[in-house]
Amino acid sequence: MVNQGHLFLGADFGTQGVRVGLADEKGSILEAKEIKYPIHYPKPGQAIQNSVDWWRGFEEALGAVLGNITPTQKKAIRAISICATSSTIVPVDQEGNALDDAIMWMDIRAKEQAKRINEINHEVLKYCGEAVSPEWLIPKLLWLKENKREIYDKASLIVEQIDLINYKLTDIWAASKVNAVCKWNYIEGIGFDDDYMEKIGLDDYKNKMIVNIVPMGKCVGYLKQELVQRYDLPDIPVIQGGIDAHIGMIGMGVVGPGKMAANMGTSFVQLIFTDQDVPVKGIWGPYKGAMVEGLTLLEAGQISAGSIIKWYQNIFNLNSPEAYKIMQEEVENVPIGADGLRALDFFQGNRTPYKDSYATGVITGLTLNHDRAHFHRAIMEAVSFGFKNIVKNFEDSGVPITKVIGTGGVTHDRTWMQILSDVTGKEFTINENTNYGTILGCTMLSAVGSGVYDSLFEAAANMVHEKETIQPNLENTKKYEKPFEEYLHLYQALKTV
């Protein structure tokens, strides 16, 4: 029997597609639909999308979800909230029409702009880990200003993916505080620093960026009547979300210190709350009040993870429906250390802890003994070593990690999950809604923002449910120590090449 109480809509605009889901008060996903959209790679280091595909996909997914529920259930919907990739930006006119392709989060064309910003060494940078990334909105704005000046000048605003979708839902331009604090150099209690913006060459930022910052969980506006009537919905509020991985953190039930949230898909994002403003070398932050009042967020990440496995599948033509099963069977027969094959997982640069956008992917140690399964194993181990390097940075800086809560597509690969657990020596918990961690996070925000639950803690207690925990084989953890050291040395040896 379907719960006929309060229901909540959530939408996750990911790298490869948009997912819309409907959840009840207990966190059960009653309906969900995903629509894919393409990514284009015009030049090395660049990645773009057509923003029209985002809205078209959303409407199709939303229509499919609402088409499978009853009129009574529609009336029970209390709110909608969305999350999206961060610093996927698009210039728009006054009506919100795109003036150019969207520059995706993984696009690192703004390397030189980021380098110049970091060389200024402004005080603002201490709030984001002493450096900006070329992935972020600010360096990309500078790149547009310097390389596509006609588009830049013509743009009414240059906005993020989430901003555009929220505008299409409400006709209101509002930026998420999560994105602003974590990626825009917005500082809690201060706002934007005019001196910093002037020094980096964005003295006109107020004319190009959204400066209306709305905290996560607060109302952006109400669903516009055109959409209410088209989908026969109640007059529901649109609750502010944020970065997909960060909202996935909420969906994993990580709403306080101690646990690490790991969103493991195309890229990996590792997030931790702390009640202190702890500086951590090589980590983004500390982001004070970015998500939860009174808590500081620390963020790490690996740009390339699941995307490298996809690359591997394409290289070896393993794209059939049975391909992944074949890949898993093959890799289980390869020993720890992949018979000496080593890889670096920096196929789009390194996000943390090196913050090196010039780093590249590496595969070394090849012999005639190696086959495609060795490549697969070496890639999974490389990403796992990158994960351990991040964990080590946290713990060396006095930030304890009791366990990791994982979500995303990689959690379905038991072989890889065991490698991750063995390499790091940490237990990994997978929740019931691991397929929908970001969707659940959005629906939890909808539940809190609409007043059904008083806090995220209450929402997490009622809507998040653990499924299983993967324990590390500590004997294997010891065996991985030498390959991990070789991974670290390989980066240092090739850093200047």
From TrEMBL:
Q: Say if the entry is tagged with keyword tRNA processing.
A: no
- Say yes or no: keyword Transferase present: yes
| Residue ranges of every copy of the Carbohydrate kinase FGGY N-terminal domain listed in the record | 8-251
* Gene Ontology cellular component annotations, sorted alphabetically: cytoplasm
Any GO BP annotation: L-arabinose catabolic process to D-xylulose 5-phosphate
Give the record's keywords alphabetically.
Arabinose catabolism, ATP-binding, Carbohydrate metabolism, Kinase, Nucleotide-binding, Transferase
Q: Which PROSITE patterns match?
A: FGGY_KINASES_2 (PS00445)
Q: One MF term in GO for this entry? A: ATP binding
Residue ranges of every copy of the Carbohydrate kinase FGGY C-terminal domain listed in the record: 261-448
Per the record, the similarity remark reads: Belongs to the FGGY kinase family.
**Protein's name according to its UniProt entry:** Ribulokinase
